[in-house]
Amino acid sequence: MRLSRYFLPVLKENPSEAQIVSHRYMLRAGMIKQSAAGIYSWLPLGFKVLKKIETIVHEEQMRAGHIPMLMPTLQSVDLWKESGRYDDYGQEMLRISDRHGRDMLYGPTNEELITDIFRSHVGSYKDLPLTLYHIQWKFRDEIRPRFGVMRGREFYMKDGYNFDLTKEDALHAYNRHLVSYLRSYERMGLQAIPMRADGGPIGGDYTHEFLVLADTGESEVFYDSAVTDLTFGDRAIDYDSVEQCQGVLEEFTSKYARTDETHDEALFNEVPEERRRVARGIEVGQIFYFGTKYSEALGANVQGPDGKQSPVHMGSHGIGVSRLLGAIIEASHDDKGIIWPEGVTPFHCGIVNLKQGDAEADAACESLYEALTAAGLEPLYDDRKERAGGKFATMDLIGLPWRITVGPRGLKNGVVELTSRRSGESEELSPEAAVQKIVEIYANHQTGRGF
Asked: Is residue 155 domain-shared with residue 29, that is, in the same domain?
């Protein structure tokens, strides 16, 4: 993409309404624009990152054997009354009526709707196990929406639901989701710590939240610092293996890590004092096992091997796709702007032409642009007739991981400058070598081209 042809309405000044880093930089980098309180339009740059995150979530869910689908944003209230949960959400639930006076709601979650789909089409244990998920817009009427996409009223979320014959099978689904989430977050450049949490209005005896440590987090967290040494890496996992998935869960949850809602001071004090940490965390996902709560209420039964009908065991599993974008920025930025991890960057590399209109510099930039594109990458070429300082400031603000700077002086020596946004280190390379290095870097990252 050539910047002269792209829609990137960057702001030079910090917006007064932005209280945290991610909100400030998303507005300044032209990623979002507020439409109403807690509701945003996603502008091209923000939309690209949102789709990169969504792609990773889809890929890891399908890798784990989960099946994508799509449910509507609007739901009838009848199912919610049938489950007995209609009043649990209170004023956070947006209730509306259609032109015929039928009561509707804008879905904050989908347990009732997915259970109705299941009970309408599945009647035998032979169709289990089954996990269905979708990524869809949700709405919760927060009393005080703030912090941009971190606590908005409208948000983009992956929610998945497993249906199993027994509790043991359902707990395997729980463990399988924990593994798939760990892999997803690491691909996004995040370390998300699974922490024992409270079930809230969704319910459930087993639940873990995934939190990213950040000063602006809304949750107070207590943890053993040893959990921050754990990485999922590129280990191969057989998602059908109960033992492997259980082993990962035990590895990542054996150290103390809890939110303030479930914090146990006595247990925390058993952690060696030098490893005890109290911090803030941003919730970016949660997994639940809630047994037969919804299947019993809504009559989601299957015939077992013994010929008897029994309610299925269920769980739900959510990832805040739009919230993740803010969490990544909170975890990865400096005073100049965003620093995107390679896995979710909107463009893989920036190209800065220091002397637009110079025949040699223009030709070198065009050649770099074509070579990177031919290699399957998306460069962003700043071809504007703008001063160099302004071009560098824009690149720093939008946070592309790598920048190639092209100028007449370097070209006389046959080199361009390749700069890492994260470290700030630069090296002079031939244009061909710079392209090859960028290609090799991204060969180690699974990145979709997105939109």
From this structure: yes
